[in-house]
Amino acid sequence: MPTQALLPILLLCVLLLQAQGGLFNRNKKPITWPNTDIKACEKNVFQDMCRRHCEDYRDCQENNICCLAYCGNICMNTL
Questions:
Q1: Whole-structure pTM over 0.85, yes or no?
Q2: Domain assignment of residue 22, yes or no
Q3: What angle do CA 62, 63, 67 make, to 5 degrees?
Q4: Which residues, in sequence order, are bridge partners of residue 24?
Q5: DSSP annotation of 70
Q6: Inter-CA distances, 1 with 7, 10, 46, Å
Q7: Opening angle at CA 13, ends 11 and 15, nearest 5
């Protein structure tokens, strides 16, 4: 194939990629913002508490709240 034909073929390939959404168009997850209703934990948080993660107060058992700690949202006893 002559070298004169390679440049138009390359240009055509680049234009087709741009028409399809570009070279680096990946399926990205939508940004989810943290729930602002969850407050920081008032009591000291220990490492073993970080096993009980939650997203809402309904994820926790009775007499527990969902609060924000250094390891994420955790269920903490209110008593």
A1: no
A2: no
A3: 105
A4: none
A5: T
A6: 11, 13, 69
A7: 70
